[in-house]
Specification:
single chain, transport, mainly alpha, 15 helices, about 325 residues, MetI-like fold, Sugar ABC transporter permease, transmembrane, cell membrane, transmembrane helix
Length: about 325
């Protein structure tokens, strides 16, 4: 209901704005020349930084482009896509991408929600805790990856030293050098770095919940978990949908964090699709195959966005219209 109510309010605001615009004289609706002067440079910048690279990827995905063989040119048709599909590393990289994305986003959500619930109440030193919890998210990815690589090192890493000292491990473990621990370890490090973004987002949403709702529910005898389930969680739904959608896309296309920590190893145990694209382009020098795989990833991400934008949100709008019709 929280998402439905938010969209209903947004539609009411949009309708009032449309009505005010209809009453505005046509000559006042025209965009002044000074506005175009400011908009044109931004539009040109977006075309240069977004549109041109995107179209270039699509173009090169159906052409032969090889950095070490300049004679390999011309239209390739589906040859680059066949090169990708015939690669034995494609399915393992796809599976690693799914695991990396699902567990990263899931862990970030759980930790972010738990920490936001812990910080939303009046606690001593709450401002200090809120300031400190955002520090991991402010650390650059390369710095965070290198720090975790040093912490997890089997010979001089602090984590192994502590675990052996307290008796949880009999000997140091090469967390990033074993097939069954490399990807989970990198995922945990990524969760540690990213969950503060969820924390501050959920904290802002929780602080916007009217306290009268909790007070009324408490007077009616509702326990804390029921107040959270029926009051807080519905208000978090719009924020949750936005965060999860964005972070699924950002995490799936993330390259630098895994590359800094493991470079996709050992034996491709932590290789994801972005790392496979990098290897096609800058190790095998087959730019055409790299663009083909990148184009497939862009198509998958765009499909996810449109399903969210026009699928789920369309159902929510239909429900809002039904509620408005019932009220009328």
């Amino acid at each position: 209901m929280g998402a439905v109510q938010s969209i209903a309010r947004g539609q009411g605001i949009a309708q009032r704005a449309k009505t005010a615009l209809a009453k505005t004289p046509r000559r006042r609706r025209r965009l002044p020349l000074i506005a175009w002067v400011f908009l044109v440079p931004v539009a040109l910048l977006l075309l240069a930084l977004v549109a041109y690279p995107l179209l270039n990827v699509v173009w090169e995905s159906v052409h032969y482009v090889n950095l070490t063989n300049p004679t390999a040119t011309g239209f390739s048709g589906f040859d680059n896509f066949e090169t990708v599909f015939e690669d034995d590393n494609l399915l393992p990289a796809l599976w690693n991408t799914v695991l990396w994305t699902v567990f990263s986003v899931g862990g970030e959500y759980v930790l972010g929600l738990a920490s936001a619930l812990a910080l939303v109440g009046p606690i001593r030193g709450g401002a200090i805790f809120r300031a400190c919890i955002i520090i991991p998210w402010l650390i650059p990815i390369v710095v965070a990856g290198l720090d975790w690589s040093w912490i997890l090192a089997p010979d001089y890493g602090v984590l192994n030293l502590w675990l052996v000292h307290i008796g949880l491990l009999a000997h140091p473990v090469d967390w990033l050098g074993q097939l069954n621990t490399a990807l989970p370890t990198v995922t945990l490090a990524n969760v540690w770095r990213t969950f503060p973004f969820y924390t501050i987002s959920f904290l802002a949403a929780l602080q916007a919940v009217p306290p009268e709702l909790h007070e009324a529910a408490a007077l009616d005898g509702a326990p804390a978990w029921k107040r959270f389930w029926h009051i807080s969680l519905p208000h978090l739904r719009p924020v949750t949908l936005t965060l999860v959608t964005l972070h699924v896309i950002w995490t799936a296309v993330n390259f630098d964090f895994i590359w800094v920590m493991t470079e996709g190893g050992p034996l491709n145990a932590s290789t994801t699709l972005p790392i496979l694209i990098y290897r096609y382009a800058l190790q095998n020098f087959d730019v055409g195959a790299a663009c083909a795989l990148a184009g497939m990833m862009m198509s998958a991400m765009a499909t996810m966005f449109f399903l969210y934008r026009y699928g789920f949100m369309g159902l929510v709008r239909a429900r809002v219209r039904r509620l408005n019709a019932g009220d009328a």
